[in-house]
Amino acid sequence: MGIIIDKINLRHVRMPLKSFFETSFGRTYARDIVLVEVISDGLSGWGEVTAGENPFYNEEWTGSIWPLICNYIAPRILNFELDGPEAVGPRTAHIRGHMMTRGGVEAAVWDLEARRNNVPLWKQIGGGAHKEIACGVSIGIQDTVDGLLKKIESELADGYQRIKMKIKPGRDVEDIRAVRKEFPLVKLMADANSAYTLADTDHLRRLDEFYLMMIEQPLAHDEIIDHALLQAKLDTPICLDECIRSAHHAEQAIRLNAGRIINIKLGRVGGFAEAKRVHDVAQKAGIPVWCGGMLESGIGRAHNVALASLPNFVLPGDVSASKRYWARDIIQPEVETTPNGTIALRDGVGFGYDIDMDFLDSITVRRESLS
Length: 371
What we know:
This protein is α/β, with parallel strands linked by helices. It has helices at 62-77, 88-92, 99-116, 121-124, 145-157, 173-182, 201-205, 225-231, 247-255, 272-285, 298-307, 357-363, and strands spanning 3-4, 7-23, 26-40, 43-49, 81-82, 132-134, 137-139, 163-166, 188-191, 214-216, 238-240, 261-264, 289-291, 331-332, 342-344, 354-355, 364-370. It folds into two domains: 3-118, 2-Layer Sandwich (Enolase-like, domain 1), CATH 3.30.390.10; 124-354, TIM Barrel, CATH 3.20.20.120. The mean pLDDT is 95.
């Protein structure tokens, strides 16, 4: 029997971060997040739109989500019989871009389907190859190198298996040199968030001496060919992020040898169905993948845990404990890591956690019901 969505509830919540998070785009002090609840026959599924507050990572931002869902997505999925969650993508495929908004709605339908079938979300998507998810952390650019070293020391003490540090011109080689001197054996990667160009090739080659796991998306957000030219001149593996928005992009990048690793972000590729296709393309080509994060609340974090249980997620992802970012999360219990730096899969139905509705109501700044 297909799924008929009776209602879509939207919530805009505001969650202050415990400390600022800086990338090459700027600093973030709080997250404005849009949550999506889809309802069918009285049963709810939840998703999170992972777009940021500004259109810097991609074309989406918090303010663009609401009208897109109300005017374009909801009319195409409400009161239609969907064969399954996989049908959401084709019904919204004519919308150019805006993968995170479409993916947040699609993820909610996957959660709904898991609850209809009384199974965990990870099982519904075909995951479960990893019963514990290896966790890394993403560390924003700090005010000082000493502050960066102290931050890394704290994260390693919590058991995290990999450190990702954000870099930008002027805060790259010497910062990494200091980290390597202090932590010579840590699994270390650098994330550039498209802050460089091919003119910086010789500068980026200086990173080869630090035996990094990878440098993530050093060039433009929509660039594959130039990454292939750069990878040919680097010993350090390039990990592709922003420029991989579909399985087709992954195929193109692999064919051109544009990178040796792919970061799969659930929102960036438009939801679970396309994320699984990217995963399969990479797995067939022998390219390892890992799960990237977008400073999600507990709902999006739980979805990432389910995604990272697929078999080719063999590198530690940005899937960390709730307490790293939030004084209080919107789920109960909060996402926690083991002393070994992993997150165990939960057997609860759907995404596996309860929602703290009282707290959620207290941080909701806008809501709307569509039916």
